[in-house]
Amino acid sequence: MSVPRGALSNFNRNPSSPWRHLDLLLLGATVAVAALGVLMVYSATKSTSGSSYLGRQGVFVLLGACVMAVVTVIDYRHYRDLAPVLFGGGLLLLLAVLSPAGTTVNGAKSWFALGSFELQPSELMKLATVVLIAALASASTSSPLEGRTVLTCLGIALVPIALILLQPDLGSALVFVTAIGAILFVAGMHSRQLAVVALLGAFGAIYVFGYSSMLDNYQRDRLTTFVSADAQNTASFQVHQAETAIGAGGVTGAGLFKGTQTKLRYVPYQKSDFIFTVVGEELGFAGSATLLLLYAVIAWRIWRAAAVARDMFGTLVCVGVLAIFLFQLFENMGMTMGIMPVTGIPLPFLSYGGSSTITMFAAIGLVLNVHTRRFS
Amino acid sequence: MTADTPRLRLGIVGIIALSLFAALLTRLWYLQVLSAPEFRLQAAANSIRTVDDPAPRGRILDRNGKVLVDNRASNVVAIDRSKLTKDEKPVVLKRLSTVLGVGVDVLSKRLDDQRVSPYTPVPVAADVTEDKMVRLLERSDEFPAVVAKRVAVRTYPMGNIAPHVLGYVGEATQNDIDNSSGSLHLGDEIGKSGVEFEYDRDLRGAPGQEQIEVDASGKPIRVVNRKAPVQGNDIVLSIDADVQHLAENSLAQGLAAAHGRSFQDTKKPLVADAGAVVVLDTKGAVVALASYPTFDLPSIANGITTEEAKVLFGANTGAPFFDRAVQGLFAPGSTWKLVTADAALRSGLITPNFSLVDTGTYTIPGDCTGSACIKHNAGSEAWGRVGVSRALTVSSDVFFYTLGAQFWSNRKQLGDDVIQRQAEQYGFGQITGIPLPAEAAGRVLTPKMKADLAAKNSPLVDGPYWYTGNNVSLAIGQESMVVTPIQIANAYATFANNGDRYQPNIALKIQRQDGTVVREITPRVAAHVDIPGPIHSAILTGLEGAVSDVKGTAFNAFDGFPLDKWRVAGKTGTAQAPPKQDTALFVGFGPATNPQYVVAVVMEQSGFGATSAAPVARRLFGQLSGLETGPGAVQFVQANGAGD
Q1: Could you tell me which of A254, A262, A239 has the C-alpha nearest to residue A47?
Q2: CB contact under 8 A, B17 and A247
Q3: Is the Cβ pair A243, B39 closer than 8 Å?
Q4: Model's pTM, two decimal places?
Q5: Which of A150, A362, B574, B615 has the CA that lies 20 to 30 A from A122?
Q6: What is the DSSP letter of B513?
Q7: Could you tell me if residue A120 is inside a domain?
């Protein structure tokens, strides 16, 4: 058997070359889901807007892929040093979006309008925060984590969370809470600290939800449908229509572009938050379960990257990404299927949106990075 | 804590992740595999609206194919009051007013129309233009409770003709729907009177259905499924539009001519306010059927308002909706003498050669006392020796009074109801069975019926006993009976047919739009009266004489009519109708040798049949024979001798 010359042979010969360990399965599953996402966004918008959203989401995916490549190529350990800068930049954007420069959509001031595109700083900030907290938590050598480190991490994380709650965007804030919780948990936070933080978190949630004016009525309504299931409620109607769409898909689905629930606009926000209803109605259980399988592959590969990472920083970054990914996935799909409250969180790689798509690609880039450099 | 903590905790994270996926997959399985059929139904119910597409009703044609009733599409805007809240009402009306260009006050007034059921949409605008309809449909969310639909509206290409016969259509009532065994639905149009009612099943057709896909805002996107409506079948009437038109005009003219004339008997001006004309062919088909006062059918084609109903049914307006030709009850007067003559000849009471001397005065024999027992011919005319034919020609009451009294005195041998039984043979006292609603049966009293009625304290009779006087009045068509114009015409048609009594038809056939015949409506013989030749010819001679003899009661009315070419046989009648003035009647048929048509004319409060009713009939015979078709109004003629 002749060994081919050139890059590939070089790739094979050097066991510590990062490219030898590129996780093709994660890359493949990600690209597959993103491609399906473009198709689904097209299906959701075709009848009203033609191919305009198809083109835009296509561009977002290509841009995301480039960002992913760049993020993968630069050794992840550089990001540890860059973390404070990224975080600081993100904070400035979050402050700016609350200024008159920001745009309000659906009651939340979360966007910058850049021409015909919109930038959502909270999306980018998710990754910056994960990297910074991972860096801080991994710097500590003691086990369990010292209380001081935990407090520092929480204190830092609280700043973007507070700013996002001011928009107000409860869903995104919860993504932050989950990601930071997961990082600190895996980093070795003491059980007692964990209990205290969980308790404080619960009180905080009750305060924010029940007493403060931080939540608008629509947000409260959206969240209470989960428990009250008041049929008159708008959110409940949305969930009912979403469930109907998914259920009507049956095993094989209505066929691509043929879903009536989605095409006739019974389901709201179907290109973004409720994109899964299009998959459910048009591709049926076969398509939805396949999508779920691809997501499971992605989650498994992220988890594995966390497990095989060369250092604690790599592990914690992957844990943070996994938490963001899982929380958004479960909250979003759970919402459309009526097992989670309604809140505006995008479904990774599927929902229409530049900021979220590019951020998720960058996050996968980070994981690929950690995975490829597990021996170097 | 051990150094393995991160590894252990990563394991916990993995387990959490796995359980999250398991939860999602389970829920997905539940929704898409276990509950899919239910959700599919819900999704369909969400987006599919079923809209009934009403079938246009069949057309109504006259016997020559002239279209009397047709359809035209009209866009109607209606408001469903049950779905309109108090707060929405002014807003919706204002918006509607802008789109339709109709004032809010007008819309509001129509909306408050109490005769429409609160659960059916109230029509507030008809004949709305297409672009306005599109605007309403597109912005349906701005017009809650507003229904915009296309409906077929009846039109009358020949104008207002035969309104009583044709009848009108209207929305089915809850009662109609309950009795339809599922064939009618809310909002369906059905025939309410006349032919529209009687032949509703044929005319109605089969409604179509459209399944329309609508989006979340209710805006129609596309038609998923369409079952085209099948238009109802056409009905070809036996009515001849030309004759019908003439009958209506002649009746109105005849009444106008009689109106205000001084009646010879009472010297009071005649009221002449109502009447009916029946033209039958001798196979029982109705050629024309007119009733006066009449109403304007086209103007009520889309429903009747409360004010219109008051006029149509009100007694002080003459109840124009009432079809006097088949529902009106009248004393037949001397037209009844056909029955008495036939009964007398048939029973052997008299022979065709029997005669008596008519002195103009008759005293009721036997059980009668007082001045009321002395009776006179009209104008106390003395006719001298008269036989049965002559008695019919000059309408000798004395002759028939005598027969009436003799029937009674011979009741042991002949029975006490010979005349009544003969009347039954000719179809009196029972409906003719003409396919028109609410036909009246009339009534012919017998001694037994009188006693029975008296036993029930009926106001129709003065006591339980039957006197000679009762039979005397019976013989000349007074007191004991009421008949309808259609019965009179049908009785004479029976005689003209040598005894075949038909159940009259109003239609000849049911056919599809393309003319293929669905069903022929053939003449129906209801009974046969055996009329022996000598009896028939004796009566016929009398009836012909009434028209052609210089002493005949209808001679003046038919003066100048080409009887040599087209002989008419007939009988005048003048019936007392207290407290009203006398009813004028004429019934005749022609050509007498081979009868084709029967014409009966009944005019209320119009005096003598000879002066008022016979000229109307003559006009119609002129048209039917084709010999006098020119223009010219019906004239009041002078009575020939005593009139009658």
Answers
A1: A262
A2: no
A3: yes
A4: 0.69
A5: A150
A6: T
A7: no
